[in-house]
Specification:
23% helix; two-stranded antiparallel sheet; alpha+beta; five-stranded mixed sheet; Structural Genomics Hypothetical 15.5 Kd Protein In mrcA-pckA Intergenic Region, Chain A
């Protein structure tokens, strides 16, 4: 079951999202994880840390953890 993550703005950048869910503590860590190709946004591998995430976007990390932006 996907975890729902509420944001208060129109969108959130992928690197900020990873900090929000406490997966990383810095932008450098986020960059490393994102470049590993283990994150999918709406079913597609995403390697851009500035990728904007909007309401109803699905984020899957290592094909294990799934999050939905609300």
């Amino acid at each position: 079951m996907a975890q729902r993550v509420k944001i208060e703005t129109e969108y959130i950048q992928l690197q900020q999202f990873l900090k929000l869910i406490n997966l990383v503590s810095s932008g450098g860590e986020a960059k490393e994880i994102i470049q590993q190709g283990i994150i999918k946004v709406n079913g597609e591998v995403e390697i851009r840390r500035g990728r904007k995430l909007y309401s109803n976007d699905s984020i899957i990390i290592e094909d294990v953890d799934e999050f939905i932006i609300i």
